[in-house]
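Fold in tokens:
===
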Amino acid sequence: ILPRNLHLLVPPNMPDDPLALGPPTTDWVRVRSAMPKTAAMDVPTKYCKTCNIWRPLRCHHCRICDNCIETQDHHCVWINNCVGRRNYRYFFTFVSSGALLGVFLSFASLGHCLRVQSSSGITFRHTIDQQRVPFAMFLYGLLAMPYPACLWAYHLYLMGRGETTREYLNSHKFVKADRHRPFSQGKFWKNWLIVWLRPRPPTYLRFKSEHERGDQRFGERRGKWQRAPVPEQQADEMEMRHVVDTKTSFRGSARSPRV
């Protein structure tokens, strides 16, 4: 998460991480390319009117998290968080473990049913009648395994290309000749190693530290959608207010008027 109302400066000692990107200084930033056909590419940068900062390369503003996320891949509804530069490996580990657990659950349950069948000398139909829970777990694993397995293969493909989900989907808005990958290292195995083995970058915000009132990093939004006002500000504008305790019941007056 990038802080609001602050422009990050170029660090004095840049790390050896090939995907470490410095803050933008102009509307266009030249990126050295590892592709054989192009030596460098000019990548446009954008100004975030909500956070009041120039977005670094590969940074996007998430309307759900209401923050600019560095190297944003996507907003995951399953973990209720954005997947970006600092937690992408953990997200990939989560998806991989889900796919492996689905495979393990299916084959372990099926193996248990087959073992009971061979040891008891009965048919598989009678085995299902006796071992209904393992067979139900076998079916559950078959139904739950395809989604994380497809997601795992998809992100493995994106890592090999050196792209994020957002970059891959946005590139299909153009014709194939105009699709570029400026952040790829040229070979799929290099892109995999960089994502898996690169050092974890530091955080820009310390959420466990004491918050000082007036810190500009947590300033108010300036975009189209504004935050809800504090209770003191919305007391005169809300339609639903605290009900004053009266003698009437919740369902209405005790004596209803005659019609």
Notes: Confidence is low (pLDDT under 50) at residues 225-259.
